[in-house]
């Protein structure tokens, strides 16, 4: 599925309006959360937000921040 979407001004921001086909494919509805992640080829990917993944990312970011010097030394 390839959909061409237009960027639209929404208040002071710019947003995308997803058509119902895209919402159905993602399995989301108005008010649901989605994740926007960068892929290896510098493209962006939209996927459904999974609370467990979001929580794991927060924990990983906290650990990386807390142990940044140790991780830097281990990376040498």
UniProtKB/TrEMBL annotation:
<feature type="domain" description="SpoVT-AbrB">
    <location>
        <begin position="8"/>
        <end position="54"/>
    </location>
</feature>
<dbReference type="InterPro" id="IPR037914">
    <property type="entry name" value="SpoVT-AbrB_sf"/>
</dbReference>
<dbReference type="InterPro" id="IPR013432">
    <property type="entry name" value="Doc_partner"/>
</dbReference>
<dbReference type="GO" id="GO:0003677">
    <property type="term" value="F:DNA binding"/>
</dbReference>
<dbReference type="Pfam" id="PF04014">
    <property type="entry name" value="MazE_antitoxin"/>
</dbReference>
<protein>
    <submittedName>
        <fullName>Transcriptional regulator</fullName>
    </submittedName>
</protein>
<dbReference type="InterPro" id="IPR007159">
    <property type="entry name" value="SpoVT-AbrB_dom"/>
</dbReference>
């Amino acid at each position: 599925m390839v959909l061409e979407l237009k960027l639209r001004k929404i208040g002071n921001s710019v947003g995308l309006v997803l058509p119902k086909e895209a919402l159905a494919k993602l399995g989301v509805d108005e008010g649901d959360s989605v994740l926007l992640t960068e892929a290896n080829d510098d493209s962006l990917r939209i996927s459904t937000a999974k609370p467990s993944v979001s929580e794991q990312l927060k924990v990983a970011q906290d650990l990386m921040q807390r142990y940044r010097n140790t991780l830097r030394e281990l990376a040498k």
